[in-house]
Amino acid sequence: MNKTVYLSPHLDDAVLSCGAIIWDQIRRHNQVEIWTIFAGDSLQPELSPFAREIHQRWQTGDSAPSLRRAEDNLACERLGVVPQHLPYPDCIYRRVPGTDRPLIEKKEDLFQPLSESERPLVDEIVRHIRQNLPSEATLVIPLGIGNHIDHQIVRQVGEVLNPSRFYYADFPYSAGHTEELQQLLPQGSSTFHFPINNQSLAAWQFAIEAYTSQLSSFWSSLSGMYNSLDAYAKTPLGNCLWQSDRTETLLK
Predict the structure, then answer these.
(1) Per-residue pLDDT, 247
(2) pLDDT value at position 241?
(3) Rounded to whole angstroms, how far apart are CA atoms 105 and 145?
(4) Whole-prediction pTM
(5) For residue 137, is it within any domain?
(6) What total number of domains does the chain contain?
(7) pLDDT tens figures, 15-58
(8) Taking the chain, what is the end-to-end CA distance rounded to the nearest angstrom?
(9) Is residue 251 part of a domain?
(10) Using CA atoms, how far apart are residues 13 and 247, in angstroms rounded to an integer?
(11) Does the pLDDT value for residue 252 go beyond 70?
(12) In the sheet where 240-243 sits, what is the strand order?
């Protein structure tokens, strides 16, 4: 049986974007895993002011990475998918290579063109995954809608690892940036739309509920998340994947 591996930048992205698809794949007895790239602890002795501000909003204190891993474990358990947490720290914990300056000093820094200084990190992650990824695995990676730098890194990693891959739209960024889709899709991509029903939508919403610390980043309430996801699921981006070429379809 082929394994499908979703590459998730952070400890929520794959579930946020593809929860119903993953749930449906597993119900049909497919082997599915989510590998979260930036799931590690901060390697810095002191958090930056921006990271402390984010932790305050999340109400996690300094144990944010471990609490977020626990949230992700619960979300994946609710979908029935196997999680793998890689040791790389989120960009809010990283420093500009060769300096002591935080990579992210304000919100706008999260959404910028990827610096060439991040290339060694891309190469390191590629080597790490290549050593552990089954050669026959089907890879599903983010398009990078919204331009978050960690999402851009994971897309680059996936494109180096496998020339024939699937892409997903990065929700909830994709709900407000639908015009970016055609710009980000590789030429000649094929669209695969997965039917959604009340049961798969409910499973998707229930899994997202597990990310308690993250809900306030996007919604003012739990009901707001439910309504937002319900509306998004009905759009052309809501339950789709895109294949990078027209070779044999390996995703079922």
Answers:
(1) 54
(2) 96
(3) 22
(4) 0.95
(5) yes
(6) 1
(7) 999 999 999 999 999 999 999 999 999 988 899 999 999 999 99
(8) 11
(9) no
(10) 27
(11) no
(12) 82-85, 31-36, 3-8, 138-142, 166-168, 240-243, 190-193
